[in-house]
User: Fold this.
Amino acid sequence: MNVISIWNDYLLPSLVLPQRQYTIPLEMYMFFGQFTKQWHLAMAGLTLSVFPVIIFYFFAQKYIIKGVTEGAVK
Assistant:
């Protein structure tokens, strides 16, 4: 579950990374300007930014479900 929160982190990469070296979720923020929104680029980018989390979930699905079920039983 921490993978999703670390993947979607905005504050730390925006403070630490040098200019124009952004993470994928941080780069998605650039599609939404003050006066304009590029929805066609934003939706394509957001779809691509979700893929690593989905791929990670498929590889770790057995362990995630095992951990959730063990935590539910006292």
User: Anything to note?
Assistant: The chain has one domain: 2-72. The two ends are 20 Å apart (CA to CA). Residues 39-72 form the longest helix (34 residues).
